[in-house]
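Good morning C.,

I know you're traveling, so I'll keep this short. The sequence:
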Amino acid sequence: MITFKNVTKEYSPNIHALSGVSFRIEAGEFVSITGQSGSGKSTVAKLIFAEEKPTTGNILIGDWDVSRVRRSDIPLLRRQIGVVFQDFKLLPQKTVFENVAFALEVAGESGKRIRDIVPHVLKIVGLTEKAARYPKQISGGEQQRVSIARALVHRPKIIIADEPTGNLDAITAREIIELFTRINDFGTTVILVTHDRDIVNGLHRRVITLRNGKVVSDAQKGKYILS
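The tokens, ready to paste straight into the viewer:
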């Protein structure tokens, strides 16, 4: 489903974020991409989401060649990929319901579709009772659940979670990871970008480890490898 073929990403002649990276992620997998700061793991996420393009190499997502995708086609590609960030990126003046609905509004969905979809995804993330509250009225973990609900509204085939527990305490972080696991059980491919050793080791899932922009390990039921 996702294939990196000898991908290199240069930000300048002296800065190689990735160097000759190759791997394949099958549909329905849950994969952790790990490594210390500067290892290239967030660059992988940006390349999958077409926020960046590779300097050389190819990135295939289904029938898409992301390395050659036209700018006008990027919004269509991104509807297949939900992204969850560390800092939530919620709109403070909108309620939980409105934050999730906004992702559908900008895509031109009808009011009826929005009224059908938003309650469904809020139920999945356990926030039905908080729909009318504003971000400042809910906890950090609940705010992250809102961002996950927003990522689910287009029923994406892939969820990319880039350090989604970085601002959360250990107990709340585990709850968020359990939510991603349930989403994966529905058949959605989940790519977790993290440097949290405890989370990676607790998942017992595939782990791709990067160091200095290169893949140094790719193991099923892997462990976090110290750099």
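Safe travels,
E.
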